[in-house]
Design goal:
Elements: H1 2-14, H2 20-29, H3 35-39, H4 41-44, H5 55-83, H6 89-114, H7 119-125, H8 138-147, H9 168-173, H10 191-214, H11 216-222, H12 225-228, H13 231-260, E1 261-262, E2 265-266, H14 275-278, H15 281-284, H16 295-299
Antiparallel strand pairs: 1-2
The structure holds protoporphyrin IX containing FE.
InterPro entries: Trp/Indoleamine_2_3_dOase-like, Trp_2_3_dOase
Pfam families: Trp_dioxygenase
Protein name: Tryptophan 2,3-dioxygenase
Length: 305
């Protein structure tokens, strides 16, 4: 065993013209690792910087950070499916179910957020956040690009005008979420949307290019017919679609209602969207895998919930 590891180490460093002994000497002096060094707890627990004195602002920041970490886990899973050389039904199904479990966590934990903060405190500290909004979560957008074909993320009103020959620039201008930050009559974009694009548009277009053929839906369509008819896989795909695009969206919407709809009067959101209409799944009809739903299910998407 010992000599086999020695041989493997030798091979590894020889392959990159490095001297194994120098590395072994480094190992001799290196200090043993601790939990806190490995998990980077000190750095992690120093990333919560409040803008106000309200304790519930801490809850708000931490919850968003937890969400971003879970989004990162989702992207790691999708990346593995996208880059898998031999995609089996089993691997596909198990990855989808795992991603769904992350979204189950995100959905059920929203009740902690909904009933977790004092409404008065929230409405005071959120004033200091304007014009920032969760709308500017880049990872959330990446999950969408990585899950389905771009056409399914285009605003319903413009789908007929976009096809495979449209440029990414043009498609980008008609993504469904432009509606939250764009006045379609004047074409003017909100500050929230403008700065988001300045920061991420280039990255999004590169990301969307890779995923245009490697997204979960395209990967599914590439499977042999028999695999595409696998009940367990179809259920996993539908479960993922439903969890992300109805359950999470509704948990989020209900939370917004809790804080921003007081006594039937809706407050303006920090990102400035017409959120009551924009956020409800029945208006957006975001569906990652449309072929896996019946016509009636699509018509009733988000209606009776
Ligand atoms: C008190 C908690 C929350 C409230 C009241 C809230 C409210 C809102 C509102 C009103 C919008 C519409 C855009 C705007 O005008 O700002 C929005 C968008 C968004 N928020 Fe939240 N949010 C909350 C928590 C979160 C959390 C924890 C996340 C996770 C990162 C998140 C992610 C998003 C995303 C991704 C969008 C864009 C959704 C889309 O385009 O359909 N939000 N939020």
């Amino acid at each position: 065993m010992k000599s086999r590891i020695n041989d493997q180490l030798k091979d590894k460093y020889e392959a990159i013209d490095q001297d194994l002994d120098a590395y072994l000497e480094g190992l001799l002096h290196s200090k043993p690792i601790n939990y806190w060094d490995y998990i980077q707890t000190d750095a992690l627990l120093n990333l919560q910087i409040q803008r106000t004195v309200f304790p519930d602002e801490m809850v708000f920041i931490i919850y968003h950070q937890i969400n971003e970490l879970l989004f990162k886990m989702v992207l790691v899973e999708i990346d593995q499916v996208a880059k898998s050389k031999e995609l089996t039904v089993e691997l596909f199904t198990s990855k989808l179910m795992r991603i769904s479990r992350y979204f189950d966590m995100l959905t059920s934990s929203f009740s902690i957020m909904k009933d977790g903060m004092d409404v008065d405190q929230y409405n005071k500290f959120r004033a200091t956040l304007t014009p920032a909004s969760g709308f500017q979560s880049a990872q959330y957008r990446k999950i969408e690009f990585a899950s389905t074909e771009l056409i399914n993320l285009i605003d319903k009103r413009f789908r007929d005008t976009i096809d495979r020959n449209s440029s990414y620039e043009n498609a980008f201008e008609h993504l469904y979420w432009q509606a939250a930050g764009k006045n379609y009559k004047t074409g003017k974009k909100s500050y929230t949307l403008t700065v988001f694009e300045e920061r991420y548009k280039g990255e999004f277009i590169r990301f969307a290019q890779f995923y245009s053929t490697n997204n979960l839906y395209s990967k599914f369509k590439e499977l042999p017919k028999e695999a595409r008819e696998d009940k367990e896989l179809i259920n996993a795909m539908r479960h993922f679609d439903y969890t992300v695009n109805i359950k999470w969206v509704m948990a989020h919407y209900n939370t917004a209602n809790h804080y921003l709809n007081i006594g039937g009067k809706t407050a303006e959101a920090t990102g400035g969207s017409e959120w009551v209409k924009y956020m409800h799944p029945k208006y957006q009809k975001r569906i990652f895998f449309p072929d896996l739903w019946t016509k009636q299910e699509i018509e009733e998407w988000g209606v009776n919930i």
